[in-house]
Design goal:
It is a single chain. This protein is an alpha+beta fold. The protein folds into two domains: 35 residues, no CATH class; 71 residues. The chain has three helices and four strands; from the N terminus they run αβαββαβ. A four-stranded mixed β-sheet has the order 3-2-1-4. A hairpin with a 2-residue loop joins strand 2 and strand 3. It is elongated and about 70 Å long. The chain starts with 10 loop residues before the first helix and ends with a strand.
Amino acid sequence: MATRKKYGATKEDLKQRKEENEKLMNKSNTTKASKNNQKLLIILPKNGTKEIIEKLKKILDKCESGTTHIFLLHNDQKMKTTYTIDYNSNSQDKIIELVGKENVLLGK
């Protein structure tokens, strides 16, 4: 027969609850970390023109400040920009419209 602790829970019950809480805490911390400090890689076309870069700059200038860091890839050269934006469906749609869905990669 299991020994009851304070509030009617056994040691096994308390251990199980503790493990479940730790799993939940780790999961929520991971979720928060994945939402913060994301990296958005925008691949510019090989024949990328100043016009495309200027349009992209206007889009990024209009975005609210956030935690998604913007990187550009042009002719196999990756460049970090000074932009950190709130990457949401509105900004996503505008960037995809400019460079194409296959040229927009979101990662951690």
